[in-house]
Amino acid sequence: MPEHSTDAATPVVSAFYDRFPYPGDPVQDGPPPGYNWRWCLRSVHAAVHGELQPEPAGGRPWKILDAGCGTGVSTDYLCHLNPGADVLAVDISAGALEVARERLRRSGGADQVTSLRQEQRSLLDLQGEGPFDYINSVGVLHHLDAPEAGLTSLAQLLAPHGLLHLFLYADAGRWEIHRTQRALNLLEVGTGAEGLRLGRELFETLPQNNRLRRHHEQRWSVDCAADANFADMYLHPQETSYDLERLMGFIEASGLHFAGFSNPAVWDPARLLEGELLQRASSLPLPQQWALIEQLDPDISHFEFFVSAQPVQVETWGDDQALLDAYGELQPCLWGWPSASLLGTDLEPISLDEPSLALLQAVEQHPGTSLKALGIGAEVVDIARDLCKRRLLLLKPGSG
Fold this sequence. Notes:
Blueprint lengths: L9 H10 L21 H9 L13 E5 L5 H9 L4 E6 L2 H14 L7 E6 L11 E7 L8 H11 E12 L5 H12 L6 H13 L5 H10 L6 H8 L9 H10 L3 E5 L13 H8 L3 H11 L5 E7 L11 H6 L1 E4 L10 E3 L5 E3 L2 H12 L14 H10 L3 E4 L4
Parallel strand pairs: 1-2, 1-4, 2-3, 4-5
Antiparallel strand pairs: 5-7, 6-7, 8-11, 9-10
Helix pairs in contact: 6-8, 7-9
C-alpha cells in the first residue's frame, strides 16, 4: 500500500484488491485474445477526431498512462495495440500489480513497447510524470473517496492534445446491485472471504422469482464467475455512481471536455425506437437524445467515454476533394482480414461488397498513397466515406 497517498480511501481499497486482485482474467502465455479498439490509440484518434492524428514531434513515442491498471488486462492490450509506445501503469494494490507483472511477462507485452513501467502508486500522486498523449482509467475513479480530485489529477497529466478514456458506474443499471450491496452491509458479512461465501449463498437462498436473484443470474452470473469479479461488484467498500446530468457536471468541473461515448451504439435512438418516435428522437440535439436513451434503457450500468484537454473538432469528410487527397489506413482492430467476412471493432459481423473490399486491399497494398491516386475510380468517394463511417477505414488528411 502506498505510504503517502493523498486519497483517504486508499488503504481500505488497496487492502480489498490485495485480497481480490481484479479483474480476475486468467494469465496466459502470448498476446491477449482479440482486441479492444478503445485501447488502440490510432483507432481512438479516428473515432474521436474523425481522422488520424500526427505522430509526436521529434520522433518520440506516444506516452500512455494506465491509471488504475489492476491485474494488467488493460495494460496488456495497451502494449500490444500500441507498439513502440512509452507506457506507465500504476495501481494502489501490490497484489493486483503482482498479477499484472506476471501477465505482461508471459504475454510479451513489454517487448512490444519502447518502455513499460508498472508501479504501485496512486493516480493522485503522479506529479512529475507526463504529459500523456493518452490516459486509460477504466473503473477507477468511482472507487476513490473523492472522484473529483482523481479527475482533476488526471487532467493535469494530460497533454494539450491528449485524450482520456473513462468508465464510470451509472445509477439506473446498478439498481439491483446497490440493493444487494446494502443488504450484505446490513448482514455485516464483511469484505473478505466470509463476505464472498455469504454473498454467493445469498443468491442461492433467495426465491427463484426474486428480482435481485433473477437479475444476477440473467445479467451478471457469468461475469461474476471469478471470485475477484463477484467481490468487486457486491462487496467493494467504496463506490460512487452517476446519472447523465451529474456525469456531465463532473467532467465540466475538471476543466475537461466531453469527446464522445466509446460505446456510441448504446446511445443511438435507432437501437430502441422506430417510425415517428425515431424521427422525433433523431431531431433532438445530441444531449437530449442521450437523456432520452437514459430514460428508456434502465439497464445501462455504466458510462464509457472520452474526454479531451481541448474541445475536439470532428472531421466528417463531407468535402469530396479533401477526402480524395486523404491517405487511408486499414482499421487495426479487425478479425478475419483479408476476408470479405469480418468482425468489426465491436466484434459485430461485417460482410464487405467487392468495391469496399477492393478499396481496403488497395489501401493496405499502397501505404502513403492518397485515395485519388489509388485508381479505384470516381466511386471511391462514396465507398471511402461509408468505410470511414463504419470505422473500417482510417483517414489522414493529405496536402491538397
